[in-house]
Amino acid sequence: MTDTPLTPHQNSIELLDSPLGDQIVSAIKRTIGASNTTKPHGLHEPEFPGNEWAYIKDCLDTKWVSSVGSYVDRFEDDLADYTGVKKAIAAVNGTAALQVAYQLAGVAAQTEVLMPALTFVATANAATYLGATPHFVDSCEKSLGVDPEKLKHYLESHTHQKGGRCINNSTQCPIVALVAMHTYGHPGDLDALLEICQRHNIILIEDAAEALGTLYKGKHVGNHGYISCLSFNGNKVITTGGGGAILTNDLRLAVRAKHLTTTARQNHKWEFSHDEVGYNFRLPNINAALGCAQLESLDRFILEKRHLAHRYIAEFNDITDVQFVTEPPHSKSNYWLNTIRLKSDDIFVRNSILEQTHRAGFITRPTWKLMHHLPMYSNCPRMPLSTAEQLERSLINLPSSAALGRTS
Ligand SMILES: *Cc1c(COP(=O)(O)O)cnc(C)c1O
């Protein structure tokens, strides 16, 4: 062997296209059409097909661009109407919305919050900001959300009740909340999770950041727990540039949420008085204006996204080494990110598929690294996470923009 220097590309055996990779690339091609490597199909691209320009121009014309203006109120009302919750409170991003939602649920220092290890890092960070400890639970293969069976057995053998609270036997810390995260827009098994939470005196919080437009048993997600949150980041179903919202059916909680996100300022004509440590988490009017316009197109986006998912389902149907992730029973998913699961859970197979799809001009992504595999969360309490670990090595997100599901 000679020591010919190799470029990073040549250096990799992953350069070889595999038969499975060929099958996946051609299924994607048949679904969304050929791509080219100079302008690849992104994973999820925003679209501004309606009143976005008009509403933002209105903000600029009136100079109401920042923390005061009518679009924030309107966006909150429109969100409440759309989701069927009593109140929506806009926030500067989904992470901030989660943090406030957690705080209102009693998450604080010396407490623990149950959440899936398979989630975006914001779910865990928001608890950490409050001084609480994330406590990781396993996911369910079908819904990709928290596995209720495993959670039930785990809580029965690892916790006890004291003074109306659920106490972790090994840390003696109260477990105050469970976060149900609706992975890629597919709702978790909310009824089962709610029942477990009620039995153990744990508050159910929904991280519905990815699931605007998703129904569980006919009711929009975010309606099933104590409090929940949405995100309007640039890659979500609709975007406000950056943004988020807290959803709740409890009017007192809504007042508290608004207060906390707006520096806890007391209502007064001119005086600056604040009665607790609040946050500057309000959504600027200009972002809310974008949100109002985006909401007008949401139903159409979801129709197109579901259409796209059904085309993928048909094309992946007879690839035996791949399973397309479909919405769980009793639900209607927004199919935020279309996802396949490889039969193999060999991470080298997954990586070679990622490489091959990228070479073919399609942006694909692995799922998130599990939370306990990140350095700052590696010592957090957790149950055995066998399913999440298999999912980590075998899930791949496919191009999912609404435009790809457009028929005409
Ligand atoms: C997007 C997202 C959030 C919030 O994200 P922001 O970028 O802060 O709006 C929280 N949780 C999950 C699961 C998400 O996907």
Structure notes:
The chain is 36% helix and 15% strand. With 408 residues, it is α/β, with parallel strands linked by helices. It has a 7-stranded mixed sheet, with helices on both faces. A 4-stranded antiparallel sheet has the order 12-14-16-15. A 3-stranded antiparallel sheet has the order 9-8-13, with no helix packed on it. Helix 5 links the parallel strand 2 and strand 3. Residues 1-11 have low confidence and may be disordered. The chain binds pyridoxal-5'-phosphate (PLP). Pyridoxal-5'-phosphate binds at residues 93-95, 98, 119-120, 122-123, 181, 207, 209-210, 231, 233, 244.
Question: What are the defining features of this structure?
Answer:
408 residues; alpha/beta; four-stranded antiparallel beta sheet; 11 helices; globular; binds pyridoxal-5'-phosphate
Query: How would a crystallographer describe the biggest sheet?
Result: 7 strands, mixed
Across the major sheet, the strand order is 1-11-10-7-6-2-3
Number of helices, where a helix is a run of at least 4 consecutive DSSP H or I residues: 11
Helix content: 25-40%
What is the 3D form?
A: globular
Low-pLDDT sequence parts: 1-11
Ions, cofactors and other ligands present here are:
pyridoxal-5'-phosphate
Q: If you average the pLDDT, what whole number results?
A: 94
Distance between the termini: 56 Å
- The H/E string reads HHHEHEHEHEEEHEEEEEHHEEEHEHE
Query: How much strand?
Result: 15-25%
